[in-house]
């Protein structure tokens, strides 16, 4: 039988953590282990986690004491890695799961089937749905359809080891997929897996985070031209010129400070070629 582990970083998630854990313990394919990382919560998150631990032996908790500022990228990955320390390697796939989601009951059974029937797939997931003002759950996926959102990434062990785990940086949920491709793994998204997201992306992010997207593009070795194109695309999709300006400021600031890259030169060369091929393909 397929065995999988789940790590859930949780910072002040009292409004959602019970709903997420409830959808997890109702899965048709149950996880082997679940590690919930209580990341410096100041509300009732820990108590709610403890309530589930008391009833489900496969759920464990670890406390982390990172910053209370919700910065995208580093905070959540550092918490994930804290939970990862408690796990062994006896799994078929591993999941990074957010604490504000409702999963379909067959979510992980379907993911397991995807991995089992497609040996080349290294990363899989569904799609996000969010409530509009009328309370209707609407599809919300501004990226390419072959992208798995960071809130519910599932990696085979072979893929996770090959990419070196998750990078503690803004852009971790982009570079992981680029490295999947670099190492010869495919990404699979299943439209039947509709994940309900209870909190819109970015609602709790600190204002300082606005420059981090451009910084991440620098760290991924995009280069100036690809950063310009990618930033313009983001600005057009979001209909906000400031997105382009902030991205370019972040990129140029990171370059000026000579920040360390999160990929090797060889990986960076692959990423640039991969991005250029994607741009050319869309222009045809």
TrEMBL record:
Highest rank taxon of the organism: Bacteria
SUPFAM superfamilies: Nucleotide-diphospho-sugar transferases
Pfam family, one: Glycos_transf_2
Single Gene Ontology MF annotation: hexosyltransferase activity
InterPro entries tied to this protein: Glyco_trans_2-like, Nucleotide-diphossugar_trans
Domain Glycosyltransferase 2-like: 6-146
Gene3D superfamilies, per database record: Spore Coat Polysaccharide Biosynthesis Protein SpsA, Chain A
CDD domains linked to this entry: Glyco_tranf_GTA_type
Protein's name in the database: Glycosyltransferase family 2 protein
UniProt source species: Abyssalbus ytuae
């Amino acid at each position: 039988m397929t065995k999988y582990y789940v790590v859930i970083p949780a910072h002040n998630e009292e409004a959602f953590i019970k709903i997420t854990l409830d959808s997890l313990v109702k899965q048709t394919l149950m996880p082997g282990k679940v590690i919930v990382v209580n990341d410096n919560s100041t509300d009732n998150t820990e108590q709610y986690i403890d309530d589930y631990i008391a009833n489900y032996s496969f759920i464990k908790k670890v406390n982390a004491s990172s910053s209370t500022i919700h910065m995208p990228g580093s905070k959540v990955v550092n918490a994930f890695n804290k939970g990862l320390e408690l796990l062994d390697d006896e799994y078929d796939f591993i999941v990074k799961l957010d604490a504000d989601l409702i999963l379909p009951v067959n979510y992980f059974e379907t993911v397991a089937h995807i991995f089992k029937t497609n040996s080349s797939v290294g990363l899989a997931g569904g799609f996000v749905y969010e409530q509009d003002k009328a309370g209707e759950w609407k599809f919300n996926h501004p990226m390419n359809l072959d992208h798995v959102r960071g809130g519910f990434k599932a990696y085979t062990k072979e893929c996770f080891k090959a990419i070196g785990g998750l990078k503690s940086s803004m852009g971790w949920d982009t570079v992981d997929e680029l490295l999947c491709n670099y190492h010869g793994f495919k990404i699979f998204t299943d439209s039947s897996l509709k994940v309900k997201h209870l909190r819109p992306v970015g609602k709790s992010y600190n204002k300082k985070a606005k420059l981090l997207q451009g910084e991440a593009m620098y760290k991924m070795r995009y280069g100036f031209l690809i950063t310009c194109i990618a930033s313009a695309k983001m600005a057009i999709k979001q209909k906000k010129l400031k997105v382009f300006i902030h991205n370019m400021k972040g990129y140029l600031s990171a370059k000026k400070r000579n920040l360390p890259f999160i990929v090797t030169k060889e990986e960076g060369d692959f990423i640039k070629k991969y991005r250029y091929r994607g741009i050319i393909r869309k222009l045809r």
